[in-house]
Amino acid sequence: MKALIAAGGHATRLRPITWTRNKHIIPMANKPMLSFPIKKIVDAGITDIIINVNPGEIESMSSVFGDGSRFGANITYLEQRGGAKGLAHVVANAKEELQGERFLFFLGDNIILGSIKKFVDRFQDENLDCMIALSHVDDPERFGVAEFNPDGSLKRTVEKPRDPPSPFAVTGIYLFNENFFDAFKTMEPSERGEYEITDIITWYIRNGKVGHEEITGWWKDTGTPDALIEGNALIMDDLQRDHFSIEGDVSKNAQLEGLVGVGKGTKINKDTLIRGPVVIGENCLIESSYIGPYTAIGDNVSIKDSEVEHSIIFSGSSIHTDSRIAGSLIGINAKITDHKFSHPKTGHRLIVGDNSVVEL
After folding, report:
1. In terms of pTM, does the model score above 0.90?
2. How far apart are the first and last CA of the chain?
3. Sequence-ordered list of residues with C-beta below 8 angstroms from that of 121, at least 6 positions apart, any chain
4. What are phi and psi of 231, to 5 degrees?
5. How crowded is residue 57: how many other Cβ atoms within 10 Å of its Cβ?
6. Cystine design at 211: which of 48, 96, 131, 347 (Cβ 3.0–4.6 Å)?
């Protein structure tokens, strides 16, 4: 089998972070987001992976993930042609690479707990035409949603319904047989102007053998800042203990509690308390500060006289403030300082980009 990962889009809900980078390389637990789906796919036994990217992004994405050899995979890259026309169109864009194949389609911003191998194995063992993963959610109107017959079998799937027929969202994990491209020929754009993947699934329900299974652990669509931060925390809970190694220089007068990872060249100075799970990158300086649980700190970050928790701090940032920082995304080379260190002493000086969120 082959796998196709959707890693395009513009992630408008994550701006300004995504003004300058593809969402799928945003760090989670100090690893690019897309590295987690890649590992899930390889662990399921699929090593031939195609990554669909925005036009002009092949070089930047390949500079991060390479040819896949470090994941035990063969990764190739494919630019999306024809604009953003829905998930089914993303797959249609890969017709040359996938025609005649049974394949996995995985949305690159979906983070799940546990293995996807059971989905792949069932798809193969039962010779299904289509297989989808579902998750019980509180806000199904935001997703594609499954509708069931009285006997529990799938009746159809519908995209972002105003009145959801069930609380089960169609997650970003799909398996299709070689009939996908025949199905796509019958599709018409929806009212949103997109070729909906839910319409493809409904076609399969009417014309083939479709399986579905609920994800029993957590599933997170990391499309918003809050979801991204929560996904970071969930990933950190799922990391193996050997991920939390101390390779930097930790003062004997600093306190490290729980699972804490410290990268090479990083210095943790005295009067610092770090409560894990926390991961800290290379060549950082943490001084006279408190770093709380579920914080991921990138490389070359300086944090002094500050309190930070449940946040993602990108590389090159500096934080020096009496204000407590929590539940935050701090972008690359951002600088946060207390107003008392500048003149005049009253008021706040802000340089805030489009779609930013600031609390004072």
Report:
1. no
2. 52
3. none
4. -60, -40
5. 20
6. 131
Our measurement of the distance from residue 338's CA atom to the centroid of its chain's CA atoms, rounded to an integer in Å, reads 32
Both structure tokens of 85: 């026309």
Q: Beta 255-257 vs 273-275: how paired, if at all?
A: parallel
Alpha-carbon dihedral angle through residues 338, 344, 347, 352, given to the nearest 10 degrees = -70
Greatest mean pLDDT range, 220-224, 227-231, 257-261? 257-261
* CA-based nearest residue to 271, from 246, 252, 298: 252
- Distance, CA of 62 to CA of 78 (rounded, Å): 11
Sheet strands (E) in 179-328: 210-214, 219-221, 249-250, 255-257, 260-262, 267-268, 273-275, 278-280, 285-287, 290-291, 295-297, 302-304, 307-309, 312-313, 318-320, 324-326
Nearest to 244 by CA among 283, 286, 279, 294: 279
CA angle in degrees (0–180, nearest 5) for 311-313-315: 165
Helix (H, G, I), strand (E, B) or coil at 90: helix
- Domains of the chain in sequence order: 2-224 (3.90.550.10), 241-341 (2.160.10.10)
At residue 350, what are phi and psi to the nearest 5 degrees?
-130, 135
pLDDT over 60 (residue 345): no
Contact 4, 80 (CB under 8 A): no
Which parts of the chain fold into alpha helices (H)? 35-43, 58-65, 87-92, 95-98, 117-125, 180-185, 197-207, 225-238
Task: Please give the pLDDT value at position 349.
Answer: 57
What the block records as the tokens of 18 is 């995504």
How many angstroms separate the CA atoms of 266 and 23, rounded? 27
| Token duo for residue 23 | 């969402």
Q: In the block, which residue shows the tokens 């896949």?
A: 68
Give dist(CA 310, CA 171) in Å, integer: 25
- Amino acid at site 22: N
- pLDDT, residue 110, reads 78
What CA–CA distance (Å, rounded) separates 38 from 109?
Answer: 11
pLDDT exceeds cutoff 70 at 229: yes
